[in-house]
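Hi! If you just cloned this repository, the fastest way to understand the data is to look at a raw example. We've pasted two of them here, unedited. The first protein comes first, obviously.
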Amino acid sequence: MSYVSDSEKNALAAKLRLLTPRLTTYESQELLKKFNFNLEKASFHLLSKKSASFDPLVPEINAVFNKYKDQEDPNDLGIEGTIAFVQDLGVDLEDPVTLALAYKLYSPRLGSFPRSLFILGWVELGASNISAMRAKVKELNVSLNHDPAFFKSVYQFTFSYNLTDGARVLPIDTAVEIWTLLLKDKFALFDKWITFTTDVYGKSVTRDTWNMILEFSIYAASDPNLEQYDEEGAWPSVIDEFVEYVKDL
């Protein structure tokens, strides 16, 4: 288990208490400790307790989940259930807001929405039926396009969300697909970056590089010709190589 700070423990406990407000912070933390502060396992255990007094939204959200649950694993939506659910929300599967939704519902990986986290996420968002969920998705879309802090959180989330089991880097083709979804209209040098990464660089993408590309795209908005680019700055080497590539064009 990786280190969990006191502030992170408090945040996790607060999320768990959304499911059953009668749970004290101490009780929440003790339950989380039992499951090594794994929110999915702790919330699943809590929801399995029939004697608990849950938030009124919980049974309604659970009913929505049951409509789309995977036939082989009834505690996950699975790929087919996810597709059907997203389509019923009126969202195109290629719409960037699907990534924002996955982030808010604590999806651990592409095509997976565990029951307990699905319920927790929608309780937190305050929606318990498809109509209300559609409205919340529209709000997420507004936030994604107008709230830089939220966009950054979603962008950083997509790295681990798209990793395959055991992997620590993203294949370049996967990275390009996500960059196209999220950065195409936000990165002044987007086309050049994609050409460089696919035709010249060609390597897998680390988490550090992934995060810094967003920062670089923000920088490039004010210096699209890279005239003020600081080669001694704290940019990863791939960005230094890209800047040299652009200047040589």
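Ok, and the second one:
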Amino acid sequence: MLGTIAKGSRLAGALGVALLAAAWGTGATAACSYTVTNNWGSGYTAAIRITNDTATAVNGWQVSWAYSKNAVTNSWNATLSGAYTATNTAWNGSIQPGRSVEFGVQGVTNGGAIESPQIQGVLCAAIASSSASIISAASSSSRISSAATSVAPIASNIATLATATTSYVSPWETIRAVNDNSNPANSNDKSAGAYGNWNNPNSIQWVQYDWSQNYSLSNTQIYWFDDNGGVLTPTRAYIEYWNGSAWVNAGNVPLAKNAFNNVALNGIVTSRLRVSMLNTTQSTGILEWRVAGTAAGGMSSSRSSTPVMSSSRSSSSIAVTSSSRSSSSSMRSSTPASSSSVRSSTPVVSSSSSSSPSVAQCSAHEWPKYEPDLNYDFRTDFGQVDPSKFKVYNGCPASTIAGVKTKGRFAFIWGKNRNPAITDADIDRVLTNLNEDADYIHNVMGWPVDKLQQEGYFSNIYLYGSGLCTDSAANTEKGGWQSGINGYPMVLLSYYPVVTPSERGGITHEFIHTIMATRGNKAAWFNEGGNTWLQMNLEASRTGNYGVGFLDATSFLAPHMPIENYSGWLQDGTFGGPNAEGVDRRVNGQQISTWRDYLGGNQYNSAFPHFLGVHVSKGANAWLWAKGAHNHILRSLAGGVGEEQTQRMIMEFRARQAMVDFGPWSNAFKSPINNNWGRTIGAEEIPGGILQEPTPHRLTFYAATTQQGTTLIPSTDTLPGWSGANQIPLKVTGNKVRVNFQPIGQNMRVQLAYRAADGTAVYSKPVSSGEACLDLTKAPKNGVVVAVVSNVDYLYNGEETRTRKHDYRLEIVEGVTGTAPLYDKHYQ
């Protein structure tokens, strides 16, 4: 961000509202609503929804609204003109009865409050409304009445005994709803909660049950969730069971709404059952999933008779791989997550403390390489462009444009209200600097160009506040950010960064965002952290100077925060989600300062991208942008290297963080770490917001513990979140350290690490439970070894993932005399 743009303004691009349903009709009326979906003080995003609540289809729509002070700077899924009229695009002009279409806008407040204007237009005449809260996906007039089911209910529902996991759940839904034994009144009855996987249209998603023993299954029943909008009944669904080595298709699931859909299982014996579902145009969901069965004993899965396959089963059924599972390793499919080239990593040791560990187990651990190494180079897929042939893409009407200056790869465009402080020399300097940085990024580092350059146009820099179609702000406004116009990513700059030479890095940062916006949708935290990583590598490659920013210490000084985290450790003790879930909270419309001082900028830290670049491969970050299949980064990595290696990757990252072991970047990270070490933080205040001051917290790598006998009990305040870690410094003596790890939650690991007197970092073999040990062949510096306890969940499943913390106990067995001081720097 540049100048005075508030923290969180980058959030808008990552939280863009997608089309929930395509459908409409001529001469019909519709309910129109305006919903503020995100608010960061100086700006906002909003969703405008038009619902056809009649029995007649509509073809083509247009709506309008007006603000007192707010102004739109970007939009998606609609064509905007004036201030403000929105018209359908070529692909979302038709709305069928009972369906909705939704488009989004991003804007600035211009010093005013967030507004919720009334949406007007012929189609809104019947029910015109606006709302500042999240609205239901279906209008009240289109709700489905209760329908009696013809399927006999299951008397003994063993689904309630199962652990439910999923490939993905929307942050506002819950996987817990599927096996709570509720009885829905209809497919839009969310009174007991719902599982939904919006926004994943036309993709196979799954829900899975795992039991602690085998059951003989007679039948299963599924009640589909359908909100008449973005979550619809599947167009295809099927049941699979685990036979001990692979998933086996057990037949298709019927697709009826407002009823339980029954599938006969004919005596399958298994401890794992999965339903996979797909809708070709929208996402899918489940209200309730029941299973009838009796205990069969044992843990091996088999089938008692030849499976009866439905005659309607497609021969081209797509197998859902285990790569996207988040359950523990004991429930993991042995099928690799991707192709056979994915090598299983060295298995995590699960040991017992009843006897002394072997010498090999206590030897220093060397991390194996990841296979495949994800070393991608964009130049293998994208060629060079010729800037000498570029054309100007104005984007705005010619009547609003006062001037255009082109140079190299860029065009600087301004309107008739250009701030007089801007000189032609300022514009020339901005263009010269951008060309120098862009040429190096493209020609030397091999990263691709943005969408405008790909299509033969100059990359655009628009002057904010100058009277262009991009905004209606005053020419004295400050700030700068990456935005978009007519589907093209671009940079929007106020006068301030243009006239301020020291803002060069900030301008380049926003240009890098246009490259990444062209590459696709990645989680909001990675849009920032991945951007700063690339910019730091630009400087290191060009000058040989390795430097990071002051926010790059956040994940070191609060390692209990998740890797995929926006706005850090929140005041209520939970964590911001990958796309800032849980961050924007309000009381009577007034925003609460949910994040903490310093840690609130955690999305800008580049530690994990640097880890990938140093310890996985030079091209791993490029691979994520080019080949990563998901918005969430850890899930994308699992699609490339598999579940086991992704979990190992999380543990390795956390262990190397404890030693600040980041190759050539190690000393760079130590600078902001040392500058903020021991700093006491509270709430970060929002101008005009509600300040809720949490208990002051002093920053350090290390988690506080209490000792009962030989057992260390961690403080509940800083227990690890998903993919988070605790570091416990141990005072040691002798030539061996042994501790007994007792995880209370799933997917936990522990690894011992220390900085030797000769300056090297030494690591033990990671274990999932039981005894971890390490021979002290090299003397530990200051007599301290750190126990790094990490959760290795890599799937984000909404609120239950975002808010969960992972407990454990650590028993001292050998060579430990107690814990070391929490505010000494044991990584040095």
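That's it. A detail worth noticing about the second one: The chain has 14 helices and 38 strands.
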